[in-house]
What we know:
This protein is of the alpha+beta class. It has 2 domains: 16-190, NADH Oxidase (3-Layer(aba) Sandwich); 203-242, no CATH class. It has 8 helices and 4 strands, in the order ααβααβαβαβαα.
Amino acid sequence: MAKNHHHAFSPEMRRGLYEAIFRRRDMREFLPDAVPDDVLARVLIAAHHAASVGFTQPWDFVIVRDIERRREVKRVFEEERQRNALQFEGARRERFLALKLEGILEAPLNLIVTCEPERFGPGVLGKVSLREVEVYSTCLAVENLWLAARAEGLGVGWVSIMRNEDLSRIFSIPANVIPLAYLCIGYVPDFPERPILESAQWAKRLPPRNLLHFDSWNHGALDGDKLAAAMESALIWREIFPDDIPDGR
């Protein structure tokens, strides 16, 4: 086992980080308990500390508690769900329609993470070659928020079956601002051991070996490759999880 660099966190701190990553779930069932402001504040500050290209910080956070606006969002979601179902056929469509894919009304609060491209003008460090860098940066803020929420015992569900133009209309979002993520947030009855869509046999987690390429897209992991073997071995977690090495991670 390689010796840890002196800048590494302690095993206990690393465990907390990896626990949040491995135990994060896209949640659909929520308890009605209110989220305390101090807890929500910590989660939002964690989101605000995400990396951003050119330090653009293109995100804003729209806190949604108003039930009438949420009912309108739910109506839009139901319309979009029917449209989404058309891409599937037969049993696959039936399974899709049977899935619970949101908690818009059940969660104590909803939250929109927006992205404002060119917040500080058209000149953005790092944007000349990649025009969507503010969108990518805002996605990092969403992930920070999600992991911090999990550490606080909060569930988060991303409702992606939505039309941006409807969200802009319902919440008076300016035309130059993108409603990037519509999130349901709240305490939950429990966090499932596996992702909900995996447990529902909608999809499976891909083997990490299959995602590796070395020096060229055409060079995947070969038998005997040490990195691929390490990614498949529970032993890499022994120092961080001495008593319960994660299964299938």
